[in-house]
Structure formats: structure tokens, C-alpha cells
Specification:
The complex is a heterodimer of chains A (79) and B (647).
Chain A lengths: L7 H12 L20 H15 L5 H4 L5 H9 L2
Chain B lengths: L2 H4 L14 H10 L10 H10 L3 H12 L4 H7 L4 E9 L7 H10 L2 E7 L5 H6 L12 E5 L3 H4 L8 H24 L5 E5 L5 H4 L5 H24 L3 E4 L2 H5 L7 H7 L5 H18 L6 E4 L10 H8 L6 H17 L4 E6 L3 H10 L12 E4 L4 H12 L6 E5 L2 H10 L4 E4 L7 H6 L11 H22 L3 H8 L2 E6 L5 H10 L12 H8 L4 E10 L2 E14 L2 E9 L8 H17 L3 E6 L18 E5 L5 E5 L12 E5 L4
Parallel strand pairs in B: 1-2, 1-3, 3-4, 4-5, 6-7, 6-9, 7-8, 9-10, 11-18, 14-15
Antiparallel strand pairs in B: 11-12, 12-13, 13-14, 15-17, 16-17
Classes of the chains: A mainly alpha (79), B alpha/beta (647).
InterPro entries (chain A): ACP-like_sf, PP-bd_ACP
Protein name (chain A): Acyl carrier protein
Organism (chain A): Streptacidiphilus jiangxiensis
Chain lengths: 79, 647
């Protein structure tokens, strides 16, 4: 099952599902330290959801260094 | 049947797709109504759990359920049972939060969770101030993985090092567990066996060492499992069968980067075991298994195919049904009552159960056989009434989506096992949940089926008697009230845990807590045995009391619902009051009634024996006093044998 993350809405939907957090578009660009309710476990859930959605392996080492959800999207969708 | 009449609303070509249970949960989350709708979650979660990827979907739902504060649930629904769980671990413990929340919500429990530090298990087990030891904690989970042992090895190691590390770790854990279990008021400690990964064994290249590692590892795990046998408050979850279900033990990147050494899938299965353990601790184990017959217990439809056309042996499919019958029988041999609800005529069903050569189960294995054409929800209610058991203690098994759907929607408190047309999967589906898990089986459990069948004989006597008095007189009720002996301790604890209807204060006591009261000279812990001309009922009741100066206070009185209304309860209290006045020399006896959803029938019990009501709290708890001026009489038809000891 591969759903391309073409629109910001797709990515937001995936984020909400993976984390259970009520995120909005602004939170995608917020630093993790400023993201209410965020913890490292969400990151792990997000990685598995991204891999399911894109059908590709996500470089976890890079994801761990990202500071925002948008950076993670960029890493996951980079060719 | 016309198409119009069978098309359910919402399924028209132009209508929207019917929402899945998971979608409805997600909608409740988006609307912020999970706490408000908490009582409706078990039905939705049961549906999610029954789906193709049940455990994984439950864990996903747990992601957002875990964000609902237990206090918000309690504010909306003050009657909600809260389960307090403290988790410590060797690796990251956070990932268990989601699945655990979902599995508990599925049973209607709100989870109050406290997560320990990364690799904090030794310190948290040791430190009496740690969250594992907090008063009121129901379950203290110490989640271990193989790294707990492997981290102790030198950089380069031989199998002898591993053997030493494993022995040392087991000894260390044994001491910590011992100390934990000895502490007053501690919850139930839950450990787990440590699954071995291929990357552990295959670091050794010589096969001889690899085999020695295998031996040392099994001995370590066996040692852990033995800890549970030594302590009443310790449970060890064996992860081996959960790993054997398949899937990966962990996700190597998550293990490496996030120290999540046990994978999501395994933790989800673990959480399911913990959910059933919580049910057991809260006295909510299921007691009755109701099965369908056609295409559930045998291949074919009796009404259409005839007795010769059904099979539970000899054919491929028949054999699968036969194997399923064996499992049902096995469960029935351990105190679970078996009953039938089948859409058939009664006579042909009885004939098959008595004479068909394929059957592993016979008519005498069932306490009720309801073969008729009434709706199954009505039949389940009928069986519950006849057995005098709450319908929430029922598990219902059927292959028909119509029947399982009907029962799930009209009796949401019944656990429904949804079988399908593949009989080889019946066993896995029935055993996917530990509905009947109990801490320990008692002699009464093993005899329970027979006891309920004798009940039918008593019913016949009642039907042939002119009056209740005549019946009781003919029945020849014998009651023995005595201080609890060692052999009855587990049974007495079980009565406090399992009895809901005749339970005056519903104070649940684990075996260790019963023992503590037995050892306390101020406390009186009595067992009530009963019997009659049809046989011995075993231990059917318990009474807890303690002395406060010139007063004896009855903490609780419990009686199995099997033996209500035969004068046993009056006899027990009458003999206690006589002992209080003449043996203990106290001047009054006090007692209480604490209302629950289930025990309203005994609200007037104390006044009926001459107790005066003295107080009532806002929660409806009633206080009573007996002046001991006039003692109630033991009913004339009861033969009493009381031995309440000297003091």
C-alpha cells in the first residue's frame, strides 16, 4: 500500500494517525521542543507509518537528527 | 426474502460505506469525546480486536486513547474501574503505553499509568519509594529483555561468562522479588521470560557453546517462572508462546536507536495478557462458555443434514471440529461452565450428544442445553437466570456473523468469539483471549460443572415440594462454619475476587491478604461449607471480622450464588453472633453494606437478622449495629456445625 505524500493534508493526516496528537499545519514547522505532547516514541511510530505509506525504507539515523516534522517529510520523500 | 428487506440501512449503492469500528473511534478522538463515551469503547474495541489485524489495530487506537486522562474519564463516569499500573524496564518502556491503554479500555478499565526510567528496573525494584511500590498500584510490570543479561558480559565473551551472568541475574532478581513480595500493601508484580534472539546465539560460532548457551538460557527463564510459584503476588508472563505466534521480536533500527528491544507486535500481545490479568485481579474472570453447535462444534447442519450427515471426526473438516471440541472440553474441566445455545430442536440435539460416535463432548458435559428457535440473546439471558450468574461472566462462541453481531450489540457485556467457516482456525480464535484466566485453580473449580448439574436435581425436588419449607426440610441442608484452614485459603480468596451478588462490601482480597488477616489475632476469618442430601457443596462462603475493643466488626460476608436462600447465610451470621456474645464476650457487632452494580439483592440482609441501621454515607454505604440482646435463630431445617476457635 503506497500513498504518495503529495499534499500537506496527506502528511498531516498521516501524522495525526501515527501519533494520536492533534497537530495542525503550523506544528509541522515547529521545533520538537516546542511541540506540545511530542516525545521520541512518536518519532518511531512516524517512521513505521512513513515506510508503510511510501513503501520505502526511511533513513532513521537522519530522521533522528531532524528538528521539525517538515524536515522528516523531506527526508522520507527524498529520492 | 426480497432484496429490499435484506438491505441494511446505509448500504444502498449511493450511500456511504459503513464506518468501521476503528473509524468511529478515530472520530470520537477528533471530536474529543473519548472520555465522555468511555462506556461505549469496549464494544468498539471488541470489534477492532476481532478484525484481521486485531492486536495491531488495538495498539494504533491505543496511541490516541493513551492521551485521555483517567481523571477525565472518572469525572464523566465515576463508576469506572481504574487499574493502576507502574512499568519499569531494562529497555524503553514507553511503547507499551498505547497497547496497554487499549487492552484495558477494551475491558472497560481506565488505565492510570506510571512509566519508569530507561534501564531503571533494578533501582526501581530496590527503592521502596519508587513508583513500583506506590500504595494502590494494582500491577507493577517489570519488562525485561535479553539485553538485561547480555549487557553484563565482558566485551569478548565465552559461554561460561554467559552462564555466570545468567545465574547472577537470576539470583539478583530473586532477592528483589522476594523483598517486593514481602512488603505490605504491594501490588502484583509481573515479570516476563526473556526471548532469545538469533543474534544472541549466533555470536558463538561453535555449536557446542551455542547449545550450552541454549541450556543456560532456558534454565534462567525456568528460574524466573519458578519465582511465580513461590510468591502469591508474583506473576511471570511467558513470552515464548507470544513470540511463537510469529512476526519479528523487534525492529532492529528501533532497538538500536531507541532501545526498544521488544518490538511493537510483541508488546501488543504482552499487553493483551496484562489486560486479562487485570480482569482476574478485579474479579472479572469469565465463568461460562456458551457454544453454538452447527458449524461450530460439528461440520454441517443437524436440521438439514441429519445426524448421519454431520461430522466431528473421520473427514478432514470433521476432525478439525473434533479437535475444537477437545479444547472446549479441556476448558470445561477447569471450572468453566459449558452451555449450548443452538437453533435446533432439543430432542435431535440430545440424541446426537448422547449417541453420535464423533462427539468429544457429551450432554453431561454441559450445565444447560438450550436448543430452540428463540433469539440467542434471549437464550443467553435464560441460561444466566438458570445458573444464577451475571451475564457479564459469559463468553459466547458462534460461526454465524448474524448471531455474533446480535449478541455483541444487544448484550455488550458478553465476550463474543467470532468464528468463521474455517474450522481449523476455531481453536486459535477461542484461545486468542485469556477470558478464563485465573490466578490458581481450586478443588471447587474442578468440580464446578458437576456441582451445577446436581443443581438440576435440587430444582426437581423443589418442583415436587409443596412449599419452600418442605423443600428445605427434605433437602437436609448442612452448614459448617470454621476458622479458615490452609487448604481453603486459596478458595476463600477466590470467593472474595469472583463473587459479585452476595458480597456485602465487595472487598477483594488476594491470597496473601487473606493470610495476613488469618495471622492477625484481632481478625476472624471464617469459611462456610455446605452440603445437603445431594452432596457436598464445598466452601461456599466466607466471613471476615475483626475486634475493636468491646465490639466485633464484620468486614464482609460472601456467599456463592449457587446456594442462596437455603438458610445458609442466616445460619452463618447467627452462629457468629452467638460466638461474639458467648465466646468473645463483646457487647455489640457492627456490619456494613457497600452498594455495587451487582449486590443490591443483599441490601436488606443485615436488618433481616435484627441489625439496626446506624449510618448512611453519600455513596450509599450503610452501617449497622446488632446489640446482641436477641440473637437470630438458626433455621430449624439447617444442621449447623460451628467451630470458631477459642478467642
Amino acid at each position: 500500500m503506497t500513498t504518495p505524500l503529495t499534499t500537506p493534508e496527506d502528511y498531516l493526516a498521516l501524522l495525526r494517525e501515527a501519533t494520536g496528537l492533534d497537530l495542525d499545519e503550523a506544528s509541522v514547522h515547529r521545533d520538537f521542543d516546542a511541540l506540545a505532547g511530542w516525545d521520541s516514541l512518536h518519532l518511531l511510530k512516524l517512521v513505521s507509518s512513513l515506510e508503510r505509506a511510501t513503501g520505502r525504507r526511511v533513513p532513521v539515523g537522519q530522521v533522528l537528527q531532524a528538528r521539525t516534522l517538515d524536515e522528516i517529510r523531506a527526508i522520507a520523500t527524498a529520492a | 426474502m426480497t432484496t429490499v428487506a435484506t438491505t441494511p440501512p446505509g448500504a444502498e449503492a449511493s450511500g456511504p460505506e459503513p464506518e468501521s469500528a476503528f473509524d468511529r473511534l478515530r472520530a470520537l478522538n477528533t471530536e474529543g469525546r473519548l472520555a465522555a463515551e468511555f462506556p461505549s469503547l469496549p464494544s468498539l474495541l471488541a470489534e477492532v480486536a476481532a478484525g484481521e489485524s486485531g492486536t495491531a489495530d488495538l495498539a494504533r487506537a491505543g496511541q490516541f486513547l493513551a492521551r485521555v486522562a483517567p481523571d477525565d474519564i472518572l469525572a464523566a463516569h465515576p463508576d469506572t474501574t481504574v487499574v493502576s499500573v507502574a512499568v519499569a524496564g531494562h529497555s524503553t518502556v514507553g511503547p507499551v503505553a498505547g497497547p496497554l491503554t487499549a487492552e484495558l479500555a477494551r475491558h472497560g478499565f481506565a488505565l492510570r499509568l506510571s512509566l519508569g526510567d530507561f534501564d531503571g528496573y533494578l533501582r526501581e525494584l530496590q527503592d521502596p519509594e519508587s513508583h513500583l511500590h506506590t500504595a494502590g498500584t494494582d500491577l507493577a510490570l517489570v519488562i525485561l529483555d535479553a539485553q538485561a543479561v547480555f549487557d553484563e558480559l565482558p566485551p569478548v565473551w565465552r559461554v561460561e561468562d554467559l552462564e555466570r551472568a545468567a545465574t547472577g541475574k537470576l539470583a539478583q532478581l530473586a532477592v528483589l522479588v522476594e523483598r517486593f513480595a514481602a512488603r505490605e500493601g504491594a501490588g502484583t508484580l509481573v515479570l516476563n521470560t526473556l526471548p532469545l534472539h538469533r543474534h544472541h546465539t549466533h555470536q558463538l560460532v561453535d555449536l557446542k557453546s551455542r547449545a550450552a548457551l541454549g541450556v543456560a538460557w532456558r534454565e534462567f527463564n525456568a528460574g524466573l517462572l519458578k519465582l511465580a510459584a513461590r510468591h502469591e503476588r508474583v506473576v511471570v508472563v511467558d513470552l515464548d508462546p507470544l513470540v511463537a505466534q510469529g512476526g519479528s521480536l523487534n525492529e532492529p533500527r528501533m532497538a538500536s536507536y531507541a532501545k526498544a528491544n521488544l518490538g511493537e507486535e510483541l508488546l501488543a500481545r504482552y499487553a493483551r495478557e496484562i489486560g486479562h490479568l487485570a480482569r482476574t485481579l478485579k474479579g472479572r474472570s469469565k465463568k461460562v462458555l456458551v457454544v453454538d453447535l452447527d458449524n461450530t462444534m460439528w461440520d454441517g447442519i443437524l436440521g438439514d443434514d441429519g445426524a448421519d450427515g454431520i461430522a466431528a471426526a473421520t473427514t478432514f473438516r470433521g476432525e478439525a471440529f473434533g479437535n475444537f471440541q477437545k479444547i472446549v472440553r479441556q476448558i470445561g474441566s477447569q471450572g468453566v461452565l459449558l452451555a449450548i445455545s443452538s437453533k435446533n430442536d432439543q430432542e435431535p440435539v440430545l440424541e446426537v450428544l448422547r449417541t453420535h460416535p464423533d462427539m468429544q463432548l457429551r450432554d453431561t458435559d454441559f450445565v444447560r442445553i438450550n436448543a430452540n428457535w428463540n433469539p440467542k440473546d434471549a437464550n443467553l439471558r435464560d441460561i444466566a437466570d438458570r445458573l444464577n450468574l451475571g451475564i457479564d461472566s459469559f463468553v459466547f462462541v458462534d460461526d454465524s456473523p448474524f448471531e455474533t453481531g446480535l449478541v455483541a450489540s444487544s448484550l455488550p457485556e458478553v465476550a463474543v468469539v467470532r468464528l468463521d467457516e474455517e474450522p481449523a482456525l476455531h481453536i486459535d480464535k477461542l484461545l486468542a483471549d485469556g477470558w478464563f484466566d485465573v490466578r490458581e485453580l481450586t478443588a471447587e473449580d474442578r468440580e464446578r460443572g458437576a456441582l451445577y448439574r446436581v443443581e438440576a436435581d435440587r430444582q426437581d425436588l423443589l418442583d415436587s415440594s409443596g412449599s419452600m419449607e418442605e423443600y428445605l426440610d427434605k433437602l437436609g441442608v448442612k452448614v459448617q462454619v470454621a476458622v479458615v484452614g490452609d487448604g481453603d485459603l486459596a478458595r476463600v480468596a477466590q470467593l472474595t475476587l469472583r463473587t459479585n451478588q452476595f458480597n456485602l462490601t465487595t472487598e477483594r482480597l488476594q491470597p496473601a491478604e487473606v493470610r495476613a488477616r488469618l495471622d492477625d489475632p484481632a481478625h476472624l476469618v471464617l469459611s462456610v461449607r455446605s452440603g445437603d442430601r445431594f452432596g457436598d457443596n464445598g466452601v461456599v462462603g466466607a466471613l471476615f471480622a475483626h475486634r475493636e475493643g468491646e465490639r466485633l466488626h464484620i468486614d464482609n460476608l460472601i456467599l456463592s450464588c449457587r446456594v442462596f436462600a437455603r438458610g445458609i447465610e442466616q445460619t452463618t451470621v447467627a452462629s457468629l453472633l452467638a460466638h461474639a456474645r458467648d465466646g468473645l464476650g463483646v457487647t455489640e457487632v457492627t456490619a456494613a453494606y457497600r452498594p455495587t452494580k451487582k449486590n443490591h439483592r443483599v441490601k436488606d440482609f443485615w436488618p433481616s437478622l435484627g441489625f439496626e441501621q446506624t449510618s448512611e454515607t453519600e455513596e450509599g454505604e450503610l452501617g449497622f449495629t446488632h446489640s446482641l440482646a436477641a440473637l437470630p435463630e438458626v433455621p430449624t431445617y439447617v444442621h449447623l456445625d460451628a467451630d470458631l476457635g477459642g478467642s
